[in-house]
């Protein structure tokens, strides 16, 4: 049901301020948008080794920039496309990650 899914997504964001959004793929797996953990800023995906350490896959990274148009500033999101091993994680970037929610939470908590 859409209402239940929306409630779960909101609860997840309230539970962890680093989660931007989430999508439950199945009972076991989710896709989560989360801020790049501080300890990984300035590293490539290869250097961070997130797949082997946390058993998650980074699908893409998203940059958020402020764009001013007609005197109004709006946030603009730009996905980098499919993440590759040389993708650099920068402060303020969003990671779009696939995996078990428990593993994604470990990445977020241990990456601080």
From TrEMBL:
InterPro entries: RCK_C_sf (IPR036721). This is Trk K+ transport system NAD-binding subunit.
């Amino acid at each position: 049901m859409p209402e239940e899914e929306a409630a779960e997504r909101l609860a997840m964001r309230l539970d962890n301020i680093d989660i931007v959004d989430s999508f439950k793929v199945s009972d076991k797996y989710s896709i989560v948008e989360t801020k790049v953990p501080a300890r990984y800023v300035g590293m490539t995906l290869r250097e961070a080794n997130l797949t082997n350490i946390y058993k998650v896959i980074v699908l893409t990274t998203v940059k958020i920039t402020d764009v001013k148009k007609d005197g109004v500033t709006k946030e603009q999101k730009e996905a980098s496309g499919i993440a590759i091993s040389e993708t650099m994680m920068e402060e303020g970037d969003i990671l779009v990650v696939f995996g078990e929610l428990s593993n994604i939470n470990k990445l977020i908590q241990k990456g601080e």
